[in-house]
Task: inverse folding
């Protein structure tokens, strides 16, 4: 055990000596500059997602569950008539059933909820469908970018951000008296931000829209931003 510890100590000492010697003979890099550049593009959101739900309560759990299933089945049957892949897609959401307690901790009934989620690019068809569903009410409306539009937009914006990063590298190298530069490391990242917050009163108004009329739909804008960060080595 002692012999192994002694050998390990010798090996560690040799490694540290080599590292120190290497640090002494290797000068720190010169002419290294950190750069950042970004580009943004505002696009109209092309995907609409609507969540509809209903709640029921009563003294009997089986009765509450049956009422929820009936309401959800009716809505799902109506939604499936309008379903189109990519344009209008339907799926069930949360389905819950839980006891209701008195202040003394005694069960005095049951309550539950059921959800239906409608999503797609055909916003007019989705708005019309919500007007034909009478057993559920709208609880949430959200607009977003589809994966295809996001990837396409990020591709365009990435090219702009990278071009700006390269232009900065060439400009800085020239100003510091270097003939050019080389990229040492680089990181490219993208995100999406809403161009303006959605007004709360519109969401509330849409959630109580009468069941015999279509939901008014109007997609907002989203801003796709790509950032490029890294370091460059300026060359003589």
Result:
């Amino acid at each position: 055990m002692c012999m192994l510890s002694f050998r390990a100590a010798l090996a560690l000492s040799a490694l540290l000596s080599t590292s120190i010697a290497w640090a002494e003979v290797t000068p720190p890099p010169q002419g290294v500059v950190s750069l950042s550049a970004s580009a943004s593009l505002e696009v109209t959101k092309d995907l609409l997602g609507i969540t509809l739900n209903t709640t029921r309560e009563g003294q009997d759990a089986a009765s509450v569950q049956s009422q929820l299933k009936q309401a959800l089945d009716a809505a799902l049957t109506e939604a499936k008539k309008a379903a189109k892949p990519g344009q209008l897609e339907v799926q069930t959401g949360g389905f819950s059933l839980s006891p209701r307690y008195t202040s003394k901790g005694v069960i005095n009934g049951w309550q539950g909820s059921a959800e239906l989620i409608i999503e797609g690019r055909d916003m007019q068809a989705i708005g019309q469908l919500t007007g034909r569903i009478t057993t559920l009410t709208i609880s949430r409306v959200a607009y977003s970018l589809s994966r295809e539009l996001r990837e396409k937009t990020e591709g365009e914006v990435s090219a702009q951000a990278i071009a700006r990063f390269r232009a900065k590298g060439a400009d800085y190298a020239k100003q510091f008296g270097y003939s050019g530069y080389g990229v040492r490391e680089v990181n490219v990242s993208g995100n999406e931000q809403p161009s303006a917050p959605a007004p709360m009163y519109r969401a509330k108004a849409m959630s109580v829209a009468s069941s015999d009329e279509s939901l008014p739909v109007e997609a907002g804008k989203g801003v796709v931003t790509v950032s490029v960060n890294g370091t460059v080595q300026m060359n003589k």
Summary: Residues 8 and 30 are 37 Å apart (CA to CA). The radius of gyration is 30 Å. Confidence is low (pLDDT under 50) at residues 196-211. The domain at 28-46+145-196+212-236 is CATH 3.30.110.170 (Translation Initiation Factor IF3).
